[in-house]
Amino acid sequence: MAIDYPLIWAFILAIGVMMYVLLDGFDLGVGMLTTRARSDEERNMMTATIEPVWDGNETWLIIGGGGLFAAFPTAYAIIMPAFYLPVLLMLAALIFRGVAFEFRHKAVRPLTKRFWNGAFAGGSFAAAFAQGIMLGGMVQGIAVEDGAFAGGAFDWLTPFTLLTGLSVAVGYLLLGACWLVLKTEGEMFLRARKWGLAGLVGVSFCFFAVSLATLAVDASIGDRWGFSMQYIDFATLLPLSPVPLTGMALCIWLARDLWMKPGVNSAPDWRPFLLATGIFITGYFGIGISLYPYIVPFELTVWDAAARDNALGLMLVGAAIMLPIILIYTAYVYRLFWGKVKPGDGYHA
Fold first, then answer.
1. Before 293, cis peptide (omega within 30)?
2. Cβ 215 vs Cβ 232: under 8 Å
3. 332 Cβ partners below 8 Å, 6+ apart?
4. Largest Cα–Cα distance in the chain?
5. How many CB atoms lie within 10 A of CB 110?
6. In sequence order, what are the residues at sequence separation of 6 or more whose Cβ sits closer than 8 angstroms to the Cβ of residue 247?
7. Beta strands 148-149 and 300-301: pairing type?
8. Three-state SS at 311
9. DSSP 39
10. Cα–Cα distances in angstroms (integers) from residue 76 to residues 49, 73, 122, 225, in the given order
11. Interior/surface letters 279-315, b for 16+ CB within 10 angstroms, e for the rest
12. CB of 67 closer than 8 Å to CB of 20
């Protein structure tokens, strides 16, 4: 039985992207939420929740980008020219954010401190927004001729991609708020619950807005789900309905947990973050259903864009060694720094 290397690598790439979205998503969300801090002490407490893990979280971005380049070079050669500017914006924002993360602790003058605090929050938003723009650009399609990118430098800039950019930023805010519910206590814990409720309302609105806008952008995606503005094909929709229904159920469950007053019978502090993660995963599955088997929608499948099997097989040996190491290291770090953060915690303290 022949091994389907392109499909295996598509799965690895999908896992890498999902891990990046979930892990770096919450620390970008925390970065944006630092604008809501009432004092430097609160802001330092918020950043202390992500200090041990934020560098490691970005490892998955390298796996996603490197995996696309190595395993699907044709897709990489098409996607990168299509999104040069959003990619540069994202990378510059991540770099600027990383610099601000360190410099904000060294700043002495109030004006300089405000600048680096703003750079940290602004870089977090810009990175999230750029990622959402690229997602929207993939969904709306890329112009391809003879296996090469044939569009313009600003094809990605449309009202739809601006909507998806904002939606991803709002989603990361929800993840960040739920992470703060998990990691903080006292007044910060209570305020994080309110931020989580506000983020959940925003995510729900963005979900419906993007879903409706997608039907206008590309009717073929609606056909995959069995519905459009004119009809509903229940034979197609019903087998796929558990994915969106699970997402809606998780939203309701999360709203209930965040709405309940903390106490003996309230939800455990870890559950909101787990539910928010589940909401993102159901959305990720939804995107997969909408686009599979295309890696360049709707032009090239994973098999069309894949490297040769001998190259994919050799790289798979390295992936089989390194991915478990990365997963074990990630789990160890999160286990090591598990627990609530208190005022004064952090490696800059």
1. yes
2. no
3. none
4. 67
5. 9
6. 207, 278, 279, 282, 283, 286
7. unpaired
8. helix
9. S
10. 35, 5, 28, 27
11. bbbbbbbbeeebbeebbbbebbbbebbbbeeeebeeb
12. no
Residue 167 pLDDT greater than 90, yes or no: yes
pLDDT per position as a tens digit, 259-294: 988 776 677 889 999 999 999 999 999 999 888 899
CA–CA distance, 241 with 224 (Å, rounded to integer): 12
Give the pair of three-digit tokens for residue 308. Answer: 């040769």
User: Of the candidates 330, 188, 192, 206, which has an alpha carbon nearest to the alpha carbon of residue 280?
Assistant: 206
Three-state DSSP class for 340?
A: coil
Strand partners, 205: none
Average of per-residue pLDDT values in the chain: 90
Q: What is the C-alpha to C-alpha distance for residues 79 and 4, in angstroms, rounded to an integer? A: 23
Confidence at residue 19, expressed as pLDDT on a 0 to 100 scale: 92
Report the distance separating Cα 168 and Cα 80, nearest Å.
20
The 3-state DSSP class for residue 146 equals coil
Whether the Cβ atoms of residue 26 and residue 180 lie closer than 8 Å to each other: no
* CA 171 vs CA 175, 177, 192: distances in Å: 6, 10, 15
Q: What are phi and psi of 144, to 5 degrees?
A: -130, 135
Element (H, E) at 148: strand 148-149
**81-134 residue pLDDT tens:** 999 999 999 999 999 888 988 888 787 788 888 899 999 999 999 999 999 999
Rounded Cα–Cα distance for residues 297 and 224 (Å): 13
